[in-house]
Amino acid sequence: MAFSLCCPWLDKRVPSLQLRSIEEPAGGAGAGMPAPTCYDSECARTEAWLDENQEFVHDYFLRKATRQVVDAWLVSHATPPSAELASPSRAGSGSGATTPVRKISAHEFERGGLLKPLVTTVDGTPTFLGDQPPHATPSRPQRRSRHELRQLDEKELIFELVKDICNELEVRVLCHKILQNVSILLDADRGSLFLVQGDRASPNPQNGRCLVSKLFDVCSKSTPEQMEQLEEIRIPWGSGIVGYVAESGEPVNIPDAYKDERFNHDIDQQTGYKTRSLLCMPIKDINGEVIGVAQVINKQNDGPFTANDEKVFASYLQFCGIGLRNAQLYERSQLEVKRNQVLLDLARMVFEEQSTIEHMVLRILTHTQSLIRCQRVQVLLVHEASKGSFSRVFDLEAGDDTDPGTPRTSPYESRFPINIGITGYVATTGETVNIAEAYLDPRFDASVDEGTGFKHNTILCMAIKNSEGRIIGVIQLVNKFDELLFTKNDENFVEAFAIFCGMGIHNTHMYEKAITAMAKQSVTLDVLSYHASASLDDAQRLRTLRIPSSAHFSLHELEFDDIDLTDDDTLRACLRMFLDLDFVERFHIDYSVLCRWLLSVKKNYRNVTYHNWRHAFNVAQMMFAILTETQWWKIFGELECLALIIGCLCHDLDHRGTNNSFQIKASSPLAQLYSTSTMEHHHFDQCLMILNSPGNQILLNLSSDDYEKVVKVLEDAILSTDLAVYFSKRKAFIELVSAGATGAGSADGAGGAGGAGGAAGAMSAWGACDERRGLLRAMLMTVCDLAAITKPWPVERRVAALVAGEFFRQGDLERQNLNLTPIDIMNRDKEDELPAMQVKFIDTICLPIYEAFAVLSPALQPMLDRVKSNRAHWIDLSDNDKNGDDKIEYNLDKELPEKNDKSSISSQNVDDTENTYEGDSSGAVSLSSETNSKYENLENPVVGLLCNNVLALRDPSKFCHLNDY
């Protein structure tokens, strides 16, 4: 102090307070810090004096150091990153079931002190309890020196010391300040402070109320860091001088400690310190409840503590009680935050991986053992059929995972005997059992310890429940470390953790069941795929057949009729289309695979009245005829043409003879899978299933990009056969066609009605824009699907009979199974109105689209002409029905001639408004829907080439040039 008074220049000469030892460079030996600055001789002498007077330096630093100086000191003395302990690598810990998770136990929450920031987990996993920034503390005025404080009068001194503690929220630092301030106030040599802990109503003496030495023997030179290293002293409630003061709430002033029978002489013998006078006083909160006891020892003048000392002591402790209660509340809130973070971290751990029950249980065992710190942990899974018995028992003992050379991914199973009395009781009742002495509990079976060398002392057993509240297991903890009892705090932790564990175990069970179900499904799909594929013998037979020309089958004719073709003829005709469009050569399609794929597609069409293989073949033939007659294959390119032909052949795969509306009304599994375009999505999925089945992979040699493009066009094409999709796109399509016909909207300005060149320019605009080309493909699918309405009248008349029969059967199912009245087109009682409804169908659905396509190409004008002709025939039939004359026979229960059974006729239906035509584009009615659920999981990417030459065998004279508008 003398140096401080005689050296006022010290504050000026050392403004940054870079105080360091002469022997040690800044940052510690070998820290790699810059060499100390060279001082003059006067500064060197000053630094030497400071090194020899550490007490002054410490006091000066506490009074004068700024926050920036402290931060700079911390930075300069920080441990370099290379010196930090690296956390164990997570490599090879795929299950995450390794060693205990964190260096923390639940017992630390009972000590009352704030936990230090938890830095990492033992297995290296991220945690909520990682490094946390220190809590910002409000800036406080610098504390006066002890000399300055002693110059103040009593009131000013108390006020100054109250200011010193009023903003301190850390309990240990606050207690240290209280004791040092009390020593200043009372001129005492040292002091101690005890805080009340425990539950007043606890039946367990070990968990009852007691006094714990927060700080013991604090003198003027003591630091909080030094005090923190001392072990806690626990004093029973009412025992000794401190216990008496806490119990009675009255102060005790003893002039001579050795003459008081309540004084414990052992402490003096252990420390070598001689206690003479002693003043002990309770610390009370605002409600008057004792929350601690403060004690000062040995007045500096060797005299006793006076009555005035008691008065001053009591006055100051009133403020200390308020500050201490606030600090404890703050500490509890921080502990609760930490507690929530621990539980959140445990929840993350539980739900991070749920692959197998063994991995899940091992995580539960290791984390529980680490958190509660006990010798053994058991998880017993309750047998589903009998709550009193257990299907599996997993054990973990402290030290099981200490050997790094024996990594495990599953816990030990059934190593230890089961206390069936306790665990069975918990599994049956769901109650928590906390036993302080196992051998005194009648439910404990002492025979489980015989011959094991292990003795059960304390037991905590708790039920594990799933999300439904059903008991699925029991967790049992045995023998808490340090001979401690399992506390209410332990119960709270285990109870909260058990909730997460219950959901984790339940989810793992569900996951394992799902894996088993998926495996069964995979096997089932494999079997179905095998049976859904055509046989190799059939494919080989088809491969040996001669393939006639397109002219032989009249495949280029728009009025094509398959009435005279056998099933083998339809397959050979499909092969001819692939050959003429040059798909086989351009995309390196194995001819045998193509034959088998066609047979598999045919095999996957059900034997329904209309939506069968023959309908698919007719749609594909119409697509082939339009592409070749208009030469639009040049607009789409070979990949899109391939997708369109495949889409036509597969667009009604596995059709059940009922439409989307029926699937939704019946709540079928298909409707649960696909909320919109139900049957169309199913057709697409079946198409992909066949394309990816072994022996049917005709796209095997396409590149990954080409395969993805084909599948995307294929999906759009099949979904476009839903009339809901058709209606959503038709308006935009017709507007584009009209704009091109009038010379507006052509991308290259070549539109108009000025001849073939103008038409070619207008069509090139469709090909140059992906969006327009996609719109044209979608409308083209509908044109082909409805193409039977464009066939000669005898074919169209056969169509009505077949389609009406399929519709009537759906109406019968709705009436019988769903107790619904079918719509008119499916109602047998309304069959006399079918001609009139067919006229409405043509007017609403067919005429607009065929008129638009006739504008795009004169080669398609005959289709429009036959639609109008058929419309006139339906009008005549409608008039005849009114007069009772001609009538179509719709009774399909009679056996039709063999060739008629093979024929395929397009179906149409009618209703009052455009918006009621919803469903597939064959005319089946369904609820209004928009397409969605795009196919994302593209598999089987393959390699191939792009085709740019087709129809090598086609007579060029039969090709139509692009038409004039």
TrEMBL record:
Residue segments, region Disordered: 81-100, 125-147, 893-928
Positions with a binding annotation for Zn(2+) 2: D652
EC number(s) per entry: 3.1.4.-
Hydrolase listed as a keyword: yes
Protein's UniProt keywords contain Magnesium: no
Cofactor binding: number and manner: Binds 2 divalent metal cations per subunit. Site 1 may preferentially bind zinc ions, while site 2 has a preference for magnesium and/or manganese ions.
GO MF terms held by the record: 3',5'-cyclic-GMP phosphodiesterase activity; metal ion binding
Required co-factors: a divalent metal cation
Record's compositionally biased regions (Basic and acidic residues): 893-902
One GO process term, biological-process aspect: cGMP metabolic process
Active site residues of this protein: H611
Family: Belongs to the cyclic nucleotide phosphodiesterase family.
UniProt protein name: Phosphodiesterase
